Amino acid sequence: MSFKIPLFDLNFDEREIEAVIKTINSKWVSMGPQCLKLEQKFSAMIGTQYSVSLSSNTAALHLAMIALGIQKGDEVIVPSYTFVASANSIRYVNAIPVFADISGVHDLSVDPIEIEKNITSKTKAILVVHFAGFPVDMNAIMSIANKYKLKVIEDACHGPLSEYKGKKLGSIGDVGCFSFFSNKNISTGEGGILTTNNEDIYQKVKLLRSHGMTTMSYQRASGHATAYDVVDLGYNYRLDDIRASIGNVQLDKLPGDLNKRSQVRRWYDKELKSIDSITVPFADNNEFVSNYILPIVLNDSDIKKREYVRTRLHEEGIQTSVHYPAIHQFSVYKEFSYPLPNTEYVADNEITLPMYSGLSELDVKYVVDTLRSILEDV
Ligand SMILES: *Cc1c(COP(=O)(O)O)cnc(C)c1O
């Protein structure tokens, strides 16, 4: 089905195409100079010392767990209201995900009070998710982490260039992890990056990205090395230069893209204000944010009503999504599950409206007018 207004649109043009052609013509298409350039640009952008390009954010989260020494039986506190990969990364190292509830319909971030309540002698780390690009209360998180000597992993997939008190998201905890999946703010098809100020973490992640080998094929091919040793049990989590060259163009376009998204968000805010049967989360935010998605929550609603509203929107040519079904309610997470009332309400009643830099004021008006008239007769 093709929609009048899709949920998301790629910000691609001739520049991405040219970058790919150039990389192919260079005859080096696996990890090489384009990946290195992407890492340097990314660190400069986020304000961190080190970045490691990877095949996905899931790979970044997995390597973060290993590099931070998270092991079998350790507990890691994580929101359930996020993409499943956030919690999966904890289980890859046989640690235990301990789910913390979100603050509520006005603030979909994990609640620091709920985090502190769940701390035990086994807790080793907190994994936070900056939902939709809006910052978690990092002062509260870092002070809990300092008090209990915990590591902090920022799953900053939604928030490249988003800010918290003058710092970029992903630069505040021990590590920041980002995704370049096609529907994110920076799209390369698949891809991700881990960023940190800790040199030990950086070296460990770089080693594990490529089989635990001491030299890389690009170094050998360019005559800088011949032999290698394998000093750790690593993975193949590399990005490649074709994707990295797209990423380098996307990074250049990101500030302009986010400025347009901020304008789209303001149009939405103005129009959505007149609908009192919904809550627009993060209305109080004053920071610069990425506006990765535009979530709304239906008031006094249930999942049946939400799905009815979405179906009607789809019939009018407006594509929507749901971010997210709660992880603790998935079959494979049954053994880690207990009631999380705020998460469960939002998971059942959230609707993600179209958000991308190419939306016009007229598009936004059409989406909101259609939503308003649907909500008036349910
Ligand atoms: C997209 C996303 C992931 C997964 O990223 P991949 O690059 O697809 O592995 C994890 N967490 C959050 C919050 C995401 O939005």
CATH homologous superfamily grouping of the largest domain: Type I PLP-dependent aspartate aminotransferase-like (Major domain)
Order of helices and strands: HHEHEHEHEHEEEEEHHHEEHHEH
Query: CATH architecture of the largest domain, please?
Result: 3-Layer(aba) Sandwich
Structural class estimated from helices and strands: alpha/beta
What does this molecule look like?
The structure is a single chain. This protein has helices at 14-26, 33-46, 57-67, 84-92, 112-117, 138-148, 199-209, 217-221, 241-272, 303-315, 341-349, 361-376, and strands spanning 50-54, 75-79, 96-100, 123-129, 151-155, 163-164, 167-168, 175-179, 192-196, 278-279, 294-298, 350-353. It is globular, with a radius of gyration of 21 Å. By secondary structure, the protein is α/β, with parallel strands linked by helices. Helix 1 packs antiparallel against helix 9, helix 3 (57-67) packs parallel to helix 4 (84-92) and helix 3 (57-67) crosses helix 7 (199-209). The two termini are 25 Å apart. The strands form 3 sheets. A 7-stranded mixed beta sheet has the order 1-9-8-5-4-2-3, with helices on both faces. A 3-stranded antiparallel beta sheet has the order 10-11-12. A hairpin with a 2-residue loop joins strand 6 (163-164) and strand 7 (167-168). The chain folds into 2 domains: 14-250, Aspartate Aminotransferase, domain 2 (3-Layer(aba) Sandwich), CATH 3.40.640.10; 255-377, Aspartate Aminotransferase, domain 1 (Alpha-Beta Complex), CATH 3.90.1150.10. Bound molecules: pyridoxal-5'-phosphate. Pyridoxal-5'-phosphate binds at residues 56-58, 82-83, 85-86, 129, 155, 157-158, 179, 181, 192.
